[in-house]
Amino acid sequence: MSRPNILLIMSDQHRADCFGFEGRKVRTPHLDLLAQQGTRFSACITPNVVCMPSRSALLTGMLPLSSGAHDNGIDLDESIAANGFAGSLSRAGYDTRFIGKAHFSSNHSYGNRPTGRSENIPSSHLFADDWHGPYMGFDHVELMQLGHNYWLPERSPGGLHYERWYHADGLGDVKDALYKQALAPFTDAAQTHNSALPVAWHNSTWVGDRTVSYLRQQGQRQRNAQSSAKTQQPFCAWVSMADPHHPFDAPAPWCWMHRPEDVDLPEHRSLDLDRRPWWHRAALENTPGGTPESRKVRLEYSRMSFQTDAQLRDITANYYGMISLVDHQVGRMLAALQEEGLAENTLVVFTSDHGEFLGDHGLMLKGPMHYDGLLRRRTCSCVARASRQGQVDPLTQYPPWIWLQLLPITPQRP
């Protein structure tokens, strides 16, 4: 039996209950089908409730305190990353690729000092247009630097593959203006607007485009090897979309797919800090440290004031639209696997790095309060030739990677 291909698809800040198959009023037909045909890990939790530690843990199989990457702003050690699953599979003969938002290294750095990492905004000009890795154990990468348009895409010579593609046609100013243009119905909800940016230029679409192109190349490559009786080289691709992370800015027509009056709100959505430990209030109200620039970001971007029910409905409808756009890209990827004859021998895993408060206990975004909506992340896996249908309840961090026991690789330790 040939070794399976692996397609790991990740969203960002995606609650574990925000899928159609979970009963919430969000449209995710492709992910619903993946869950129906495969295995759902319903009690999967994240090892950390912010991006960098969670992503680093998934790559390395190490808890954040063990790897040292235990908070945003702490770069993952590249020697540790090289011994993660991507590096291990590469050494075992896999073609390994990363497409989209990696966030293994800091985008911003204290005092805007360059770190020398490709993902670091002050350093990205050091990486030429034809640079594609290797990076963190992956043979080839196509990266977006941020993907959250509180910061618009960097202009060359900065930025990475998505940002340089975005500006390559000379229409960057036009795209930026369209992104910032709000479409009706208008809202006063925080960090929320229906964006006029055409979906063809959206970073979720770019990740979908680059992934479909890669899968078509792999399909042709594996067919050529089969016809010439050569050993087929399997692939492992981690593809990572930056949505539905805030700001909540779904493009048309996805921003109109869910009506605010139809979305579901959390049962417990009162901000009841008087009943909570003292540090809940401190995390929400204390003045952040750092430089003036980082303090401004933490106050304006990383925090959100209490939202009324009407505002929360507008946010949730937009959040659902962002998820539906992610689901659409997943559908394109699954269709490409089928069309290229790869589906029968490809393990597909969908997961997220962490959740989103989305109004639970009156809270928004993420923070040190480990409520269920932030801590849980939905993980679904499916492979046509070896699928176990149904739902399992392991309280574990990386349940799909039990499949890696099938692969002839030698465990590595940093």
Question: What can you see in these coordinates?
Answer:
This protein has helices at residues 29-37, 51-60, 64-67, 78-81, 85-91, 161-167, 172-180, 203-227, 278-285, 292-300, 309-339, 372-375, and strands at 5-11, 39-41, 95-101, 140-144, 182-183, 194-195, 235-240, 346-352, 379-382, 390-392. It has a single domain, classed as 3-Layer(aba) Sandwich (Alkaline Phosphatase, subunit A). The chain is built from 12 helices and 10 strands. The chain is globular. The chain is α/β, with parallel strands linked by helices and 414 residues long. The protein has an 8-stranded mixed β-sheet with strand order 4-3-7-1-8-9-2-10, with helices on both faces. A two-stranded antiparallel ribbon has the order 5-6. α8 (203-227) runs parallel beside α11.
Descriptive tags:
about 425 residues; Alkaline Phosphatase, subunit A; eight-stranded mixed beta sheet; 10 strands; about 30% helix; disordered C terminus
Describe the structure concisely for a colleague.
The protein has 414 residues and is of the alpha/beta class.
